[in-house]
């Protein structure tokens, strides 16, 4: 240790006339010492791990004048210590001394104390000594095994993506007794904010993971001892396969039940997973989701990344069409731009994915612009030509996407007359065009835009094989409307929703 500022003779000769500093403590706080003794006044002393140490104390003066704080840090082997006097501070302020980790030796006991020096040179008594022991020895590295995810070298096939399983952690040898946790990250190095699991007294723990993408993966794990020291990262490599059955329309987490997505005026995306009976779990906002959904122009009815998961399209406030890839659990965090030939989407008032005939793969792309329904030639999130104009008059209609209702292998449309609330099935031909209105079939009424400002058809949300509908009413309630054969619908049922202010919702999908 070096000496930055040595105590002066004047300080030593001054009669104590100021209070002894209080609130002595270090950051990090020593661990493993006597209960309730953060200062380390009594044995056993606590330990501090590898890294710098900040010493702190509160000094005051009886007359309210400025005050300095002198810190003394002494190693237990008799080698030179560290004596530092800080600058003048307002009486009652907390003074600090920061020492880098290189100033401390491993396994050493350090004694430190503080005293106050007034602006007139009066010096307090030294505080009672505090102590800590340094521990710079890294903990033992973990040994990783898993029967749920066989290692890459085992030759055993792995499970399909979205399988939840565990990786077993075992710690033994020197430093194992100090290990308190295992910190981990999938396909990335762990960091201070990474999740961790406690390691038991037997030196074992289990890490639960759900790999969502097919292919090779690496789980990186490091152990943490009681002082915060870290072991070297240990990799566990394994692979998962593709799910042979892609997710159906509206099912964003692969459980076979259609879910609901809602965006709000502040640009936030909310995921409400279905319970299988039309009701919904509390809304969830994933921290990695985009926050540019304030336009209320979204569409969800297809897999745009060819991974079997249902993805999301939306138009941003900058009039750009973007696609958010679903990680398979309803978290839409990976964003790509879908380029439009010749311009932006500022004229779009609706964004529509009619859906694929199989109800799972790329769902196509439509938009309503200046009252015209446009069909965009596209595949897997890419537009490759100008659109086909499918007709006009859509400025007072809402285009919904129920899938194939006519049984011909082509997804159809459900058209809502915004004024009258009439619902009609509009069949589509194999080339994606919409059949003439004379071929449209009335299937329901009572769903005017005045009554239901927001309406969407999802997949099968209650397990009866028919696409269902959700709508936000003019009174700010969320209704579930059960689908029936041929595109007909039952009576609306008001749902209880938590985690979402329905008055701020601007779109459903």
Brief characterization of the structure:
The protein has 509 residues and is mostly beta strands. The protein has three domains: 22-134, Sandwich (Immunoglobulin-like), CATH 2.60.40; 143-240, Sandwich (Immunoglobulin-like); 260-508, Tachylectin 2 (Tachylectin-2, Chain A), CATH 2.115.10.10. It has one helix at 9-13, and strands at residues 22-27, 47-48, 53-58, 67-75, 82-85, 94-99, 109-118, 130-134, 143-145, 165-170, 179-186, 196-198, 204-209, 215-225, 234-240, 260-264, 269-272, 298-299, 312-315, 321-326, 332-337, 348-352, 365-369, 372-376, 378-379, 382-383, 388-389, 397-403, 412-417, 423-426, 441-444, 454-457, 469-472, 478-483, 489-495, 505-508.
How would you explain this protein's 3D organization?
The two termini are 64 Å apart. The protein has 1 helix and 36 strands. 1% of the residues lie in helices and 37% in strands. It is elongated, with a radius of gyration of 33 Å. A 5-stranded mixed β-sheet has the order 2-8-7-4-5, with no helix packed on it. The chain has 3 domains: 22-134, Immunoglobulin-like (Sandwich), CATH 2.60.40; 143-240, Immunoglobulin-like (Sandwich), CATH 2.60.40; 260-508, Tachylectin-2, Chain A, CATH 2.115.10.10. Mean pLDDT is 93; it is low at 1-16. The chain has 509 residues and is an all-beta fold. A hairpin with a 5-residue loop joins strand 33 (469-472) and strand 34.
């Amino acid at each position: 240790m070096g000496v930055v500022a040595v105590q002066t003779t004047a300080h030593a000769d001054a009669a104590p006339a100021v209070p002894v500093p209080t609130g002595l403590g270090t950051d990090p706080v020593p661990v493993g010492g006597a209960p309730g003794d953060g200062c380390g006044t009594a044995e056993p002393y606590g330990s501090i791990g590898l890294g710098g140490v900040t010493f702190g104390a509160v000094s005051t003066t009886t007359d309210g004048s400025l005050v300095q704080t002198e810190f003394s840090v002494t190693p237990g082997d008799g080698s030179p210590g560290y004596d530092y006097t800080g600058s003048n501070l307002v009486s009652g302020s907390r003074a600090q001394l920061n020492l880098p980790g290189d100033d401390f030796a491993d396994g050493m006991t350090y004694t430190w104390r503080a005293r106050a020096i007034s602006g007139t040179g009066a010096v307090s008594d030294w505080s009672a000594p505090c102590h800590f022991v340094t521990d710079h020895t890294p903990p033992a590295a973990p040994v990783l095994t898993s029967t749920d995810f066989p290692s890459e070298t085992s030759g055993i096939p792995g499970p399909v993506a979205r399988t939840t399983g565990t990786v077993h952690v075992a710690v033994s040898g020197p430093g194992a007794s100090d290990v308190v946790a295992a910190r981990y990250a999938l396909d990335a190095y762990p960091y201070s904010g990474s999740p961790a699991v406690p390691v038991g007294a037997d030196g074992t723990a289990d890490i639960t993971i759900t790999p969502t993408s097919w292919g090779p993966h690496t789980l990186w794990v490091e152990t943490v001892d009681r002082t915060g020291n870290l072991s070297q990262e240990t990799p566990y490599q394994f692979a998962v396969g593709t799910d042979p059955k892609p997710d159906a329309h509206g099912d964003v987490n692969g459980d076979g039940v259609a879910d609901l997505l809602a965006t709000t005026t502040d640009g936030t995306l909310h995921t409400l997973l279905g319970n299988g009976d039309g009701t919904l779990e509390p809304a969830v906002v994933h921290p990695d989701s985009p926050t540019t959904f304030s336009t209320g122009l979204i569409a969800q009815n297809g897999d745009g990344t060819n991974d079997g998961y249902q993805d999301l399209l939306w138009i941003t406030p900058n009039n750009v069409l973007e696609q958010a890839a679903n990680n398979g659990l309803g978290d839409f965090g990976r964003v790509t731009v879908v380029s439009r030939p010749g311009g932006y989407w500022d004229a779009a008032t609706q964004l529509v994915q009619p859906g694929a005939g199989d109800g799972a793969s790329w769902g196509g792309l439509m938009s309503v612009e200046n009252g015209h329904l446009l069909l965009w030639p596209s595949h897997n999130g890419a537009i490759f030509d100008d659109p086909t104009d499918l007709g006009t008059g859509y400025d007072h209609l809402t285009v919904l996407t129920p899938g194939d209702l006519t049984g011909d292998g082509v997804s159809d449309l459900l058209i809502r007359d915004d004024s009258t609330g009439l619902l009609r099935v509009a069949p589509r031909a194999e080339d994606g065009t919409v059949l003439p209105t004379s071929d449209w079939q009335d299937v329901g009424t009572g769903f005017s835009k005045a009554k239901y400002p927001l309406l969407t058809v999802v997949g099968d949300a209650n397990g009866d094989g028919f696409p269902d509908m959700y709508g936000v009413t003019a009174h700010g309630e969320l209704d579930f409307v059960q689908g029936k054969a041929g595109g007909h619908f039952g009576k609306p049922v008001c749902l209880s929703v938590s985690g979402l202010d329905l008055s701020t919702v601007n779109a459903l999908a």
